[in-house]
Amino acid sequence: MGMVAVIQMVSQSDVTANLARARALLEQAAAAGARLAVLPENFAAMGRRDLALLGQAEASGEGPLLPWLQAAARELGLWIVAGTLPLPPVGQQGGKPCACSLLIDSDGQIAARYDKLHLFDVEVADSRGSYRESDDFAHGERLVLADTPVGRLGLTVCYDLRFAELYSALREAGAELISAPAAFTAVTGAAHWEVLVRARAIETQCYLLAANQGGQHPGPRETFGHSLIVDPWGQPLACEARGEAVLLADIDRPAQAAIRQRMPVSAHRRLHPGTLQPLHKEHT
């Protein structure tokens, strides 16, 4: 067993101010006894147009974000899922960055890196209207899991929530918890956020740690908030509608094991990733 924290923010374009607010919220989580904390997507900057430059600075060791994260994790004795940062694809220096979710361990070391697989290229009926993440970011290419003090963690980001096959693959790879830092829009969030988070928890019988942005941002952009910690039965353990918040919950692994034993859906699965073949109708 162990305590986890989900952190909700209302990040702006000022990186220094965002980091100060994130540090204060991480300190609250650590003081409450959390072993692992999840920051929201774009926690360090929202509305910036210089993402590639930010990413290149971080990759070359000249940016503020990685040193800040590593110091925060080490000084607070906390594992941190660092929302998303713009970082170049592994092995590359230029081009579009990835929306990268780093897992930092309590020694300040990078324990895992997940590059967001699904990019939000969507028309939304809000004040902004059109979202084209692929204009700014490159797609990720792989699943990522890592062992943490509170269980085996699968990493996802925001729009990934709409792709159940990703979560099923993480469950088959041994996930017990799944992080979902996000910046869901107010419109799509009101329609689908909670039902998606709870559905992914129910399907995988994992804890879902869904850290959303929750307010007004440059752009203009409004995010939905309602960050959640959901248990493997699909029940919300903590939620906050808007604004900054630190949500806390205990991970009960014996209870999770009992749920999986009573309803062994993973053992009953007949369709596995890569095995489903299309049905071709014969014409006579």
Shape: globular
Largest sheet: 7 strands, mixed
CATH topology: Nitrilase/N-carbamoyl-D-aminoacid amidohydrolase
Query: Which class in CATH terms?
Result: Alpha Beta
Number of alpha- plus pi-helical segments = 7
Secondary structure: number of strands? 17
- Residues in helices, as a percent range: 25-40%
- Succession of helices and strands: EHEHHEEEEEEEEHEHEEEEEEHH
Q: State which percent range the strand residues make up.
A: 25-35%
What is the residue-mean pLDDT, rounded to a whole number?
A: 91
Kindly report how far apart the N and C termini lie. 60 Å
Structural class: alpha+beta
Task: Kindly provide the radius of gyration, computed on alpha-carbon positions and rounded to a whole number of angstroms.
Answer: 18 Å
The unreliable regions are: none
> From the coordinates shown, what is the CATH architecture?
4-Layer Sandwich
Name the CATH superfamily assignment.
Carbon-nitrogen hydrolase
Number of discrete domains: 1
